Amino acid sequence: MDVTTTTGLNPTIGANKEDIVFNPKGILGKDDFLQLLITELKYQDPTDPMDTEKILNQTSQLATLEAQTNTNETMKEISEAFRSSSQFNAIGAIGKIADLGNNDIRLDESGSTIFELYFPEESRGGTLQITDNAGNVVKTVQIPALAEGVHPFEWDGTTDAGTRAETGVYHVTAIYTDTSGNQRSTQVGAYPIESVRFEGSEALLKLGSHYVPLAQIKEVYEG
What would the pLDDT profile of 180-199 be if each residue is shown by its tens digit? Predict the structure, then answer.
């Protein structure tokens, strides 16, 4: 008998029906191998008993399999505990800034798109630029004075030339002036974390008006 085998069991010749264990899926665990060894010993030929060295070898293999199984189960428990701890640590990020790692928006067949920008301080006004993947400015929009916070914007899909922009991914950056007269910038993709919601074992962070999975956050920093 080989402990590493994962094929189905064949019933031992001469064994009683109640001693035979069938495994339709063909996947054996340590208990299956132990049962097989016991059955094999129980029904061995008295005139030709199993070799002692073979029994010791099979017992050693069972012990190794037991240790591997216990190690795998322990590692799984540690992994699950670590994941749970990491998810709940997201609560400590409330009030910080989450960066998604890009300033992408998508213009689809509907011809318009809504996005949000976060202004960390009051703005006296500025300019919003929408660029394509090559860095070309597609649309320029004047921004009015805005209070600190997250503000929604809608792009109707038209370009500065008055044509219709192609569907696809674009990028949004805004340059504005704060109340002290300093020029600042902000972009789509960076928002304050307002709250954390849990769905099962997954943590969702509220950024603006949307909830985003923790796994999609590239960086968290002080505002």
Answer: 999 999 999 999 999 998 88
Provide the residue ranges of all domains of the chain, joining segments of one domain with +.
17-89, 94-221
Q: Are the CB atoms for 91 and 116 separated by under 8 Å?
A: no
The CATH number that domain 94-221 falls under is 2.60.40.4070
Query: How far apart (Å, rounded) are the C-alpha atoms in residues 21 and 115?
Result: 62
Burial classification of residue 40, based on how many CB atoms lie within 10 Å of its CB (0-12 exposed, 13-18 middle, 19 or more buried): middle
Give the DSSP letter of residue 133: T
Q: What is the pLDDT of residues 98-152, one digit of tens each?
A: 999 999 999 999 889 999 999 999 999 999 999 999 999 999 999 999 999 999 9
- Enter the tokens of residue 92: 């400590």
Structure tokens that stand for 17 in this block = 């029906």
DSSP code string of 158-200: B-TTSSBPPSEEEEEEEEEEETTS-EEEEETTEEEEEEEEEET
CA atoms of 102 and 104, how far apart (whole Å): 6
Q: Does pTM top 0.85 for this prediction?
A: no
